[in-house]
Amino acid sequence: MTGRQSPLLESVASGLERLRIIDAERFRPTADLAWPRIVTGLAIMSKQTADLAMVGIAVGTAGTAGLAFALAYWEIVLMIGLGLSGGTVSLVSQNYGGDEPERASVVVTQSVFLAIAIALPLAAAFVLFAESLIGLFATGPGGLETDGVGEESLAHGVTYLVLVAPAVLFELLNLIASRTYTGVGDTFTEMVVRAGGALLNIALSALLIFGVGMGVAGAAIGTSVSTGAVTVVLAWGMVGRSYGSLGMEPSPVPISRSSLRLEPALLGQLIEISAPEIGRRIAEGFVVFPLLWIAATFGPVIVTALEVGRRVRSLINSVNWGLGLAASSLVGQHLGADEEDEAGAYGAAILRLATVVYVGLAAAIVIFAEPISGLFVSEPDSVAATATFVAVAAISAIGLGIDGVASGALLGAGDTRLPFLASLVGRYVFAVPAAALALLTPLGVVALYLALLLETYVPGGINCWLFNRGRWKAVSRRYRPSAEVESG
């Protein structure tokens, strides 16, 4: 899919080069990789956002509050998958860029083994301990128990968590397949499959929620079935089978009988790179638990408003699915070819591009925050509260954009430990204490606004500094194919 740019994109490339944001020659491969991944990210993140909107219409704030609690756990699944698949894309891109496709294929197999080992216990926990897990949000001071809505919201959360459990394994495998395609420079195939899965999810959920009257249960079943369907379609290409005339390609690093084995050295490298990245991602996802716990003290309307703001921000962050992964793939491929200066130039250019794009998107969301909020809630007080959260979340997305591309470039080099620490500092040294001010001071809900901003701008600033420092180039030398040759 590379090398074919429309006249519009050529004009955009020229304009960006004149503004000294990114050279046209670097924009073209970046755009080729990024735009399908942006669509893919939008497809993935839109599923829960659409479910939230439909449940809000069919059930009301009791349903959306319960869904928010369950989605906090689903987000942990997503973050674990992103962390594991982040290690996958780092090793796949470096080995593929270093002309070692067979070794890259074995990396993918190790990722699948790890995904299965992680997913099965998680899915079992969702089924066996759903009431206890959702019940954690009812233990705060005041909680939701004080207004009679709490038990209904918690019941909705339990229903969703139990019924979405089968999708845990599907989602982890889907993310590995998606990142594998990204690592070899093909983002079109995963885009088509993921977008189709998102449309199927919305159609099934709408049918089950409104047509059958299943409410939150319908949303969960729609998510599980559509995620499983995506797994089947992606698996077809991941074992090297052709998609025929559909325009999609089989993986050039397929899982085969020869690669279907444990390889301790590569498994060790995968764990070494993925563990800090999984930690960083979990830190990103887990911060929602104290935020929701604090929001619950203000009632289901604020819980819903916070969740809507975060979901809108996740849609904006679809840009990072493209630009962040383009940074990982292009930086990794050039490092695999021992082209450190070019890898650095790509990372810096994509970082500038992301900043410009996110500022523009945030401004647009702030302007239209109220009508956007009206898609999820209908009562005037709920719309006003939600609109404020949407606007603040949109502004915080700028920090998320910087963080995503900077950490993506570091990930392409295999440098994941310091970004993990940056995530911990931003979210747990700054954001959570700021949110706690909602309970300890007259700031109230305003403290939650501050927390949303700090959780993205602090790690974004740290990771941007780490990238500019350049230490990641030295880190990457341990993981390149040439390193194995030299050690052999």
From TrEMBL:
Keywords recorded for this protein, A-Z: Antiport, Cell membrane, Ion transport, Membrane, Transmembrane, Transmembrane helix, Transport
The compartments listed are: Cell membrane
Which terms in the GO cellular component ontology are assigned? plasma membrane
TM spans, by residue?
52-70, 112-138, 158-176, 188-210, 286-306, 349-369, 389-411, 418-440, 446-468
Q: What is its main location?
A: membrane
Q: Give the matching CDD domains.
A: MATE_NorM_like
Q: Look up keyword Acyltransferase and say if it applies.
A: no
Give one Pfam family, short name only: MatE
Q: Any idea which GO molecular function terms this record carries?
A: antiporter activity; xenobiotic transmembrane transporter activity
> Which biological processes are named by the entry's GO terms?
monoatomic ion transport
> How the protein sits in the membrane?
Multi-pass membrane protein
Report what the protein is called. Multidrug-efflux transporter
Species in which this protein is naturally found? Natrarchaeobaculum sulfurireducens
